[in-house]
Design a protein that fits this description.
By secondary structure, the protein is an alpha+beta fold. Helix content is 24%, strand content 20%. It has a 5-stranded mixed β-sheet, with helices on one face. Helix 1 links the parallel strand 1 and strand 2. The termini are far apart. The model has no long low-confidence stretch (mean pLDDT 92).
């Protein structure tokens, strides 16, 4: 951020991939893996918790289809794989509320399989 940049509108921006590919596509897609349900949960919980300055958004393809569902949180640029509501809640609590990270769900450049 430079002196000329305006203050950010949100302090944290969460982009949840909800891309849908044709059925049977070799790369798969986040939507067929439950991404919409997970994003809806995150959005409702963030509102319920009264998280100020946090925006949960749908995103098109984040190009990590095989690892999905995926999300990326900015400004940190931290990527996560999440499959369950419990995973979503853990990311919400640890990263967005406490400012920590959920190491077991983080995606790293070069990952070819989701974390276990």
């Amino acid at each position: 951020m430079t002196e000329r940049d305006p203050e950010p509108y949100f302090t944290r921006h969460v982009f949840c991939c909800e891309n849908q590919r044709p059925e049977g596509h070799e790369r798969g897609c986040c939507k067929e893996k439950g991404a919409s349900r997970l994003r809806n949960y995150l959005k409702a919980r963030a509102k319920e918790l009264g998280l100020q300055g946090v925006r949960i958004n749908s995103a098109g393809c984040l190009d990590r289809c095989e690892l999905g569902p995926t999300m990326v949180i900015y400004p940190e640029g931290v990527w996560y794989h999440y499959r369950t509501l419990e995973d979503a809640e853990e990311i919400l609590q640890r990263h967005l509320v406490e400012g920590g990270r959920v190491e077991r769900l983080q995606l790293r450049p070069g990952d070819e399989e989701p974390p276990r």
